[in-house]
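Researcher: Predict the fold of Protein-glutamate methylesterase/protein-glutamine glutaminase.
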Amino acid sequence: MAIRVLIVDDSSFFRRRLQEILSADAELEVIDSAVNGREAVEKALALKPDVITMDIEMPVLDGISAVREILKVQRIPILMFSSLTHEGARATLDALEAGAVDFLPKKFEDIARDKQEAGELLRERVRAVARRRPLGRSTFSTSALARSSQSSVLRQPLGGRAVERTLESGAAERGRFERPALTPRSHFSASGKDYKIVAIGTSTGGPVALQRILTALPATFPLPIILIQHMPAAFTGAFAQRLNSLAKIEIKEAEDNDLLKPGVAYLAPGGKQMLVEGSEGQARLRIKEDDSPRITFKPSVDITFATAARVYQDKVLAIVLTGMGADGREGARLLKQQGATIWAQDEASCVVYGMPQAIAAAGLMDQEVSLEDVAARMLQEVKHG
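Model: Structure tokens for Protein-glutamate methylesterase/protein-glutamine glutaminase follow.
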């Protein structure tokens, strides 16, 4: 059965363009369109589409208010279209906090090399969000510029001594696999390992997941935390500021030469790569420009995990959360070779079970954890208190 899509935008040109792109896929059926937020609410409740694409700025009722009204009554995945500006970032984060599951920029050239690639990306994103019903309010996500591809190249480090490693995303589908059973909350026990850093990688669905985890940590959390969230450059600063205003620990957008300090979380800047360098007792972050067309994700979970493996070896607790694709799998493989601990979010609490599934399929996962348990288990595992 085709995925039924409702398009909401006040621009007739954009509505036509979107309909043409989506209609090129036999799996997608555009059932109607709306020209403002009020009409979107009415048609969403009457037609019950599988997915809604929603503009933010519209007359009568804006897109953020429309998302709130629709999700009060019906849990429909909503994909926002946004401008990649500072104001656009703030509005998009508000929409995601209201319950939208993902977003894409209105200028398709910002996410693709050509028209064909942009169309494929948009259709893929609509299919992905249709597979998962939103978890309710605040299912924020932002993998807008994180394009998936069949392979990319991990260069570690960027500059200096370079080692190329091919990342075949199809490897996540190799053969059959058995993953560890989800440990009941009452049965979880810490491993007793000594840790020096926590590293968290995520994509679609990541912002709400990160918010839930980070706001549950005490100000005295004993380790630095590095965060790799697929997000465009215009958004990471605003997202870090929002998290910092809500959490007890300090959260900042990472800057070049930041020294890693306990109780501080560092969010990788969008459009760049975040590397860990130095020694275990004096590690710092390097933020590198990356114009390589061979590296798909900027920031890349694989690249940051790989550099953390070199510096911290087995003293890393790495957590892979909800997201499309397989970014993080090869970095986790390098961490695992050094003896690090790898956790993956369970399917039931993911917005998109892609990145955690890739970890499980590769046999790299030590624990499968529900989102609501991550913070408490982190505290147990790092022996806080």
